[in-house]
Write a structure and sequence with these properties.
30% helix; single chain; YaeB-like fold; alpha+beta; five-stranded mixed β-sheet; 5 strands
Amino acid sequence: MSAGYTVVLAQVALDRLKALADRRMKALIFQRIQGLSHDPELQGKAMSGDLAGYRSLRAAGQRWRILYRVDRGKVTVLVVALGPRKEGDSEDVYALAHKLMRRGLMG
């Protein structure tokens, strides 16, 4: 087991978490984020293509995704985006991640 990682939320991820009105859903997502402090590379799914180097973790009844990157050197997990998985919708977390990547804002 690894020593605990420090989990940091990028501003975009923090804003989306704060904007979530459903307190129960927010608590479930926050719990999953906190869980990333232990063995983050064993959690989630490694992304490929444009998002290679990032991982995707399911949360809140499988509908939400938490996208993060692990920095072993700094023992840090950076949560870069989170949101619902709605394929084909502009609110889809992966559409958001691609938009952030194009703008150079993926942390």
